[in-house]
Amino acid sequence: MLCGLVLFLVSCASSPTPRDSSAAGAAAADRSEYYEGSGRGAGLAEAMNAAKMDAVRNAVIDMIGAEAERANSRVLQDVLYSTRNPNQYVYNETMERTRRENLGTVESMDMIFEIVIRVNTQAVEQVLNRHGITGSAAGAGTATGEGRAQGLVEDEQAPHGESPATVGAGAADALALESSDFASASDEEQRFIRRYVDTMTYMVYFPEDSDEDPFIMRSAVAQANRYLTSNGFFAVDAAQIESLRRDQQFVYEAETGREMSMIQWIAQRLNADMYIEVDALTSSESQGGNHYATANVTLRMFETSTGQLLGTVNRRSPRTLSRSSADDATLNAVQSTVFQAMPDVVDQSRIQMAGYLSRGVRYDLILTNTSDPRLVSEFRRRLGARVADIVTVSQTAEQTQWAVYYFGRSDDLQDLIYDVSDIVAGLDGMYLVMTRGKSLTFDTGL
């Protein structure tokens, strides 16, 4: 069982409907590469990754036989099953969740995760061949399923990984968290991460430049919030967002100089841990008294303090019917698609955020009046000894900015800053100027 988090966006996709007999045959061949997997772990990501590798193991058994798999179990564990990146051996967009259950508590999770997923048998076969693992326990012969795997490669035109599950590959690479990173965290830090993720506040809104009818998009936001609140998650009231967006334009420009989006600024003001942008592209038509519509919905998840894109979920609705109007059909298409997408959005946002927090929560700490560089350096050194990490962003005589990674809430960090300033001679007069989300500004008092 994997003991860490390997984070890539996972989304579910159904097999395309075959239009002719040859297409049906290809679909059947593709479906033969689907395997069940079951995983258990101390968190959702750990259990999910274990389930993926259990599916890979079942594929290996199908390819070389159970006897050969048992005979080579130690080698397979070293070269395949213990990988830190299960996603290279599966097609994430095909994952179908059949069970997700926490047998433990919020503080001490014991997660069961069961899936059906398509295995990248070409990648698995390459590992088997590279290490001489074949369909005979004695090491002779060729791997069962070689022709079938090759046929799959010929049928599969898109390279593995270039799918809706890997939207923003660069961001996914940046967010990939090796298992050792999470395992190296202390028990207390791991508990903090789980508690943080379990109690996150979400803010959902639509982008300012959306081409869709604002009424449709507000309905999409309401549907997303309805899902969040009905499942026990914290969500920012859309009316608060509307109020700030309407009345605080000048404050936003004065504070940010438009260096961040207004949505991110609002998320910081309202203390959201994650904000989700929902956008849609719709089409509709009317035939007689019937009205039809489809919607392609995109939900993007961002970490509030930095605006870092953590993942994207795309969903396309089936054709919806309304006898009232095309607008009603469009509304139904968007709302139903958002509701279907939200379970994956929540699951993946929790996984991605857990990986993002592996170094601690990032806070922007700004000190003004930093004319004494030696004093500032002493403060940074002492603070750095009591947080996970501290990185200098900029430093002038007027202002110094650091990125502080800390396993604790904003109030805890504020108390810690006062504690450190009290033991640095000359900084005992430091005081808080303002906080906004995860940004804290102090005056040194010099």
How would you characterize this protein structure?
This protein is α+β, with helices and mostly antiparallel strands. Helices cover about 45% and strands about 25% of the residues. Strands 4, 5, 6, 7, 8 and 9 form a six-stranded mixed β-sheet that branches. The chain has a five-stranded mixed β-sheet with strand order 11-12-10-14-13, with helices on one face. Strand 11 and strand 12 form a beta hairpin.
For the residues shown, what is the average pLDDT?
78
How far the N terminus sits from the C terminus, by CA atoms, comes to: 54 Å
Count of all domains: 3
Uncertain runs: 1-29, 137-180
- Tally of contiguous helical segments: 16
What characterizes the major β-sheet?
Answer: 6 strands, mixed
Structural class: alpha+beta
Radius of gyration: 25 Å
